[in-house]
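Batch job 17 of 40 flagged for manual review because the log was empty.
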Amino acid sequence: MASIFYEHTDAGATLVAMFRRIDNGKRWNGTDEVLDSTIATADVAVGTVSATNLQTADSDDTTHYETVIPGGLSAGYYQVFYYNGPYTLGKVHVGRDSIYWDGTNVVRWSRDGDVATAAKLLAYFQLLARSDPAIANDNSTELTELNADGGSGGGDYSNQTEAQEAIRDNGDEEWGTASGFATAGALTDHDTDIKARTLPTADYFDPTSDDVAQVTLVVTTTDVTNPVTHNASERNSMADAILVRAVANVEGSADRHSLGAVVMLITNSSITGTTWTAKKPSDDSTFDTYTVVVDAGAEPITGVS
């Protein structure tokens, strides 16, 4: 007959226990699961446990009470509430435990179960992380549990070759052969194939001597040597631009025989002896000089019509 044990310091207390399922909030009334609104009382007697029947882990002098799991209790997670005297709706409990009842045994309960669960999880984690033989020996129970046959066969996990530390230390030795990927040999084959398709040096493009047949020339020799034809409006616009543009814009680059030189000779020049000096309009400096022939007996021009 399965039991749970409740530790209580009040040796004179008369305790009763009430089992309430965690998943649906119903409590056990001795024959069925019911809600509080259905029945007001449903108690299970709690008996005093003698010192000889204490759990091994308990060595203090407090009073321990034994609660026998009631017959017919269905498997599930339960909170077990302890009361001084019979339970009534709304009564405040003096203590409680949390258990899982699998139909035959109490798998865990709160007072020692939380500590045990944490210790188990730590042991499993150590086996998954550490590769040393010592942890395999210390956690041999948990290692056996990891490889236990759950119905379809057991495992062969070994922390010394498959733990995270082992994989780090051994590298590729602990990984299975990859499938579905290109192997080193296959890559070498492709490399050879690529090299075989590489153009020989003689076929490389030489920009200094090779022609590009696919390029169509837009400007030809004929286009450069022949005058471009413009319509009347375009010709007028270009003539107007030439007439209105100031000679100062080209005084630094105009040839001495250009129209720009003629403008400067007409608008800003002087003759001294046989030297005719044309001056730049921007700063009155010399643009260029010309040699003239003079004749004192020549008749001057007095008009143009």
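Reviewer: the log was empty due to a logging misconfiguration, but the result itself is present. The two ends are 146 Å apart (CA to CA). Unflagging and moving on to job 18.
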